[in-house]
Amino acid sequence: MAISKAERLMNLALCLLGTRRPLSKRELRESIEAYLEAGSDDSFNRMFERDKDDLRELGLVIETVENLDGEVGYLARRDSNRLPPITLDAEEAAALGLAAKVWQQARLAGAASGALQKLRAAGLPEDVDPYEAHGALEPRIPVHEAAFEPLMLACRDRRPVVFDYRKATAAHPEPRHVEPWALECWRGHWYLAGWDRDRGAERVFRLSRITGKVRSRSGRFTAEVPDVVTVRETVASWAGETADRSALIRLRSGAGYPLRAKATAVRELGDGWDELEIPYGHGLDAWLVEFGPDVVVLEPAELRADVVDRLRAVAKG
Question: Mind listing the pLDDT tens digit for each residue in 87-146?
């Protein structure tokens, strides 16, 4: 890191830690010499956003606050940036190492490695190698969606976002204004749980159906953020894991083993087909569509209609 940038980051950190009220971009620019030397507003804005992201990557908790006039300000509260002494035994260090391995193939790999380095500096026992502990386990969570990283940061910073989303039953994407709560991985797919401002209700979005870029918006959340357990239950419900009814389907013999594992009853029909009774909850129609011509929904009628609508939407492209 160049000395000039190191000094700029240090000055910005000191300004944010030393203030008792949020400072606007204008005030920060007037307080830091390097920002005063920026050639244009665009140059300053780019420099400031990079510096802010760098400080957050280094572990500084920076809050974004909007005042009564709608002006956005920034500060880093001292109580939010002070940690108690860290002490870890061998088992705890091994658990952290295992968690870091999960992200080695994802875009969080650098952050996970950096976190372990910080823990070593904070007192992690030198004779403990968190990467080698339980080396037979090689867990992975794949993250291929470009929307994952901006949404992860938006969840962390409590920032509203806008993105284009294509429902399974729609031919074209539509813009969504969302207050993101949490990201959850379910059955190999990532989901975002949050508050849909346009619909005024809680919604869950599958990241693979987000098209284009995720854009951040200023301002505070308008809806209360539920606790982690509630969010996870919501994701499970929208992913089809909670069921309050049963559905009857025909399944081609030798196909749909995940459906067979969920079935509460199976009956051979002959001619290469079986009849299955499976739990029916929100999201089952989307799951059944993935099996294509190997599945035929018999009842209930609304589930059959939902599956037909999804297949028609796919056929239209």
Answer: 767 677 666 666 666 555 555 555 555 665 555 555 555 554 544 544 444 555 566 788
pTM as predicted? 0.48
User: Which 3-state string (H, E, C) describes the chain?
Assistant: CCHHHHHHHHHHHHHHHHCCCCEEHHHHHHHCHHHHCCCCHHHHHHHHHHHHHHHHHCCCCCEEEECCCCCEEEECCCHHHCCCCCCCCHHHHHHHHHHHHHCCCCCCHHHHHHHHHHHHHCCCCCCCCCCCCCCCCCCCCCCCCCCHHHHHHHHHHCCCEEEEECCCCCCCCEEEEEEEEEEEEECCEEEEEEEECCCCEEEEEEHHHEEEEEEECCCCCCCCCCCHHHHHHHHHHHCCCCCCEEEEEEEECCCCHHHHHHCCEEEEEECCEEEEEEEECCCHHHHHHCCHHHEEEEECHHHHHHHHHHHHHHHHC
pLDDT digits (tens, 9 = 90+) for 262-292: 899 999 998 899 999 998 877 788 788 888 8
